[in-house]
Task: structure prediction
Amino acid sequence: MPVEMNAKSTTANTNPSVKKRVFSGIQPSGNLHLGNYLGALRNWVQTQSEYDNIFCIVDLHAITLPVDPKELHNDIRQLAALYIACGLDPQRCKLFVQSHVHEHAEASWVMCCFTPMGWLNRMTQFKTKAGENTESVGTGLYCYPVLMACDILLYQTHYVPVGDDQRQHIELTRDLAQRFNALYGQQVFTIPEAQIRTVGARVMALDDPTNKMSKTDPNPNSRINMLDDAQTIKRKIARAATDSMRLVTFDATRPGITNLLTIYQALTGQSQETIEEEFAGKGYGEFKAALTDHLVATLAPIQKRYHELMDDQRVLEGILKQGAEQARPIAAATLQHVKEVIGLG
Ligand code: TYM
Result:
C-alpha cells in the first residue's frame, strides 16, 4: 500500500541512526517541468531532514528511447543543478548519476532473469511509450521497470517519493522483492513503499487536462518548465484550457480549472475551501493572474541558483562524484548478497 501524504504529514525521526531510507530519481530527458517538481522533487526537499536520502539522475533510463549524446550529457548536468537549486542539500542527500554506479546495470540483468514476462506485459507505461512501435523499440524500454526496481532495491529503500504515474512500477518492485526473498528464504531486499502526496501527484497538461503534464508532449504550451521565464509562464497560464462556467471551484467535471486550482493549492498549501473563498465572485482572469504570481515567485529563486551552479561545473562534478562514492558501497553490498544467494561467483 502506498503511503498517502499531505503536505504537512511528517513522521519525523530526527535520530540519524534510525532514519528510514528514501530513494528516488528523475530521468535527464530535458525540460524538467512543474509536474516533476510538485509530484516529486519538492517533496524530497521538504522531508530531507527526516530521512536518509539518496537521489539519482537516472541516465540509464533516459537511453531507453533514442537520444542525442550531447543533449544527454547536458541534461544530466542541468538536472543535477536543478536538484540542488530546488533545495536538495548535498550534505543531507547522496546525489549521483545512475551510470556512475555500475551495480545498477549488473543487478538489473540478474533481476531480469527473475522477472516473469507476464508481469512486464502488464506495465502501462511501456504501452504508452512504445505506442504502435512495440516491434521496433529497444528491449531496454521493456525492461525499464526492472532497472527501476533495482535502483530502489539496491539501497534497501523504505520509501520512494514519486508522482502518481509511478504507482505501478513501485508495485512491481515490491512484488519482485517479495518473490526473490521468498524464493531464497532470506530478507535480501527491504520491501519499499511508494510515498505519493494527496495534492500535486498528478499535474495535468495545460492544453488538455485529460492528459498528464509530460516532458515529451510535442506542444510546449502543455507544460510549465522549471526554467520558463515570467513572460512565458504568464502566456502559458493565460492560454491554459478552462471552460465557459467562470466559476473558480474544484470540480472534477471541469478538469481544466480543477488542474489549475490544484497547482495553486500545491504552491500555497491552502485548503480547497480557503482558495474557493478567496476567488468567490471573481473570474478566471483574476485567478490566473494570482496563479502566475505564485509560479513566478516559486520559480525565480530556483532559476537564479540554477544559473549560478551551471556557471561552476567543477562544483557540480564534485558533488556528483562524491554522491557516487557514497552510494556505491551500499549498492555493492546488496549486489554481493544477491550473488551469494543465487550461487554466482
Ligand atoms: P520521470 O523522470 O518521468 O518523472 C520524475 C518524477 O516526476 C513525477 N511526475 C509527475 N508528478 C506529477 N504530475 C506529473 N504530470 C508528473 N510527471 C512526472 C514522476 O512520478 C516521478 O516521480 N521511472 C521514473 C524514474 C525512476 C525512478 C527510479 C523513480 C527511475 N528509477 C527509482 C523512483 C525510484 C520516471 O520515469 O520518472
Notes: The chain is about 50% helix and 10% strand.
